[in-house]
C-alpha cells in the first residue's frame, strides 16, 4: 500500500524574504560559484502575445533541483500589477520529491541584489565601498539593492532617481526607516559625480544615463537583461571598458547583456563573476567597474539551498 506524500510547504513573500538575508545569500552565491556539482542549462525565454515573456529556468546540484517559472511584463505597473510574477519549485534530486514552492518575485529581487552585493565586495575600490549610493529606478529592484548595499556594505547615504517623483520619494523614505540619509534627484547624470556606488534598475526601455561615472565608481547595471534592453548610453559604456573593468554575472550574459551588446562589444571577451577571486578591497584598483547583472538560475538555486538548509523545507535524501 502506498502512502500519500505530505504536502510540501509554500513560502510566500514574507517567509521567503525572512529566509534570505542579503549578506548570507551573497555568501551562498559565492559558494555556489565554486561548486562543480552545479549545473545550469540555458534558460528558455518565450515571448508572449502583448509583449510579455515567460522565463523557464532550471538548475541543480547534487542535492536539490529547481525550476523557476516567472513572467515578465514591463507594462504591468500601469495595471497595478508587479512586472515579475511566478514561483520556484524545489525538488529532491535523489527521490524526485517536491520539497517546497517559493515565491518567485521575492527570490528574484533578493538574489539579484545579493549578486550585485557580491560583485561589489569582490570588485569595488576601497573608496567606493561605503558610498554614497545612487539608485536609478525606484521599483522592486531599487528597493532590494538599497537594502542589500545597506546590510552588506554598511552604506549610510543614498540618492534616488526615478521617472516618478512619488516612487523616488517612497524609496528615500524607506531608506530613512533604515537609518540612512536619503535624497531624491531629478538628474541622475549629475548625481554620478557624487556617488561612487551606482545601481541602475530601470525598466530599460531607453537610455537613462549619459554621463561618465566617477573614476573610482562601481556600477551594477541591472535593468537591461535582453539584447533589446538598454539603460546606459553606448559611448559611456565604451569609455568605461577602455578606462576600467567590465565584468558580467555569467556567460549567459554573452547573448543577453543589452547595454554591452548595444555598445558594440563581443561580450564573451569580458570575465564573469566566477573568474573573479574573493579578495579584500586593499588589493583592488581604483579604476571604474561596470558589472552587468543579467540573471541566472544558479542564483535561484543558491536561494533554494538557504531555504532547505534553514529547515523550512524537508531535507533532501540524497
Round the mean pLDDT to the nearest integer and report it.
92
| Helical fraction | 25-40%
Query: How would you sum up the global shape?
Result: globular
Radius of gyration: 19 Å
Question: Approximately how much beta-strand content do the residues carry?
Answer: 15-25%
The CATH level-2 architecture of the largest domain is identified as 3-Layer(aba) Sandwich
Label the structural class. alpha/beta
Largest sheet: 7 strands, parallel
Under CATH at level 1, the class of the largest domain stands as Alpha Beta
Number of separate strands: 13
CATH topology of the largest domain: Rossmann fold
The residue ranges in which pLDDT falls below 50 over 5 or more consecutive positions are: 1-5
Give me the number of helical elements.
Answer: 9
Oligomer: single chain
According to CATH, the homologous superfamily of the largest domain is NAD(P)-binding Rossmann-like Domain
List the helices and strands and how they pair.
Blueprint: E1 10-11, H1 13-19, H2 22-33, E2 44-47, E3 53-60, E4 64-72, E5 84-92, E6 98-103, H3 104-123, E7 133-136, H4 140-153, E8 157-161, H5 165-177, E9 181-184, H6 188-191, E10 197-200, E11 218-221, H7 234-243, E12 245-248, H8 258-261, E13 289-292, H9 297-309
Parallel strand pairs: 1-6, 7-8, 7-10, 8-9, 10-11, 11-13, 12-13
Antiparallel strand pairs: 2-3, 3-4, 4-5, 5-6
Helix pairs in contact: 1-3, 2-3, 2-9, 3-4, 3-9
